[in-house]
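Could you show me some protein's one-letter sequence and the numbers that encode its backbone in two labelled lines?

___
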Amino acid sequence: MSELKLEFVGKQVKDMYGTFMGKVVGMVTDSDGSIESVGVDCGSVGLKQLTYDQLLVQGDYVIYIPRWRLDAQKLLRQKNLTLKRIKALQDIVTENDLMKGDAELVYIKYEKRLHAIEEDEKSINEKLQTRLNELEAESKSIKAVLFDAKLQYRSNEVTEEIYQQISVYTNELLEHINLEKAEINNVKAKLSKQTLENIASTTPNITITTQGLTTAAESTLQQESATQNVMTPQSVAANANTEEKVVVTTDNNSETEANWLNQVISNE
């Protein structure tokens, strides 16, 4: 058995918020020997297969990363980069009107990409809200257990020591739930604040205009910008450390701009 597989077998699994899920009992591999999923004994719940890309070995534990988190982080990066490129196109047209024709071709491509991302965002938000509802239901169930334990203690059915133990365990579970709820709400807030206006606010010394861009996206982006709150450059940059950087030149060298646009068109 490879060292990679040995890293998983027999380890306890917990989610990234600290809740224990079970123990790794085996793995399912592809024909080339790579790990597809990891089997986790979850007690009375049974054996669960967790996909390999959602797992991370950390010391004596295997950490499970929820799918919603991976999907949301990917969407945040994609949307941020797309908005940055749309803004870069607007800046290029503003600085050199001769690039209007080429810029429109690229702009249409990014308009379609932004629309697709916004559709994905709706789906992600639905999943996030579903997860929040699940966590709220779990929280109520845990609080009911804690309240009943307190009731048993006050009626002298259990000792204070037993009640304190139950209190510690249930509060730990509630803390894990609150951590996940806070992160979900944070992701939802970041997605809602990712707009062209907020991306533009990171470079206040440049006048933003859609002059020369006559596609349907112009009015759409203006309407979206008008209805969104402005956020700080720090919040725009959050979770975007690994994104591709777009460099917008401020000189009027049309040959350099043409090369950049042609490269973007060919890469599409």
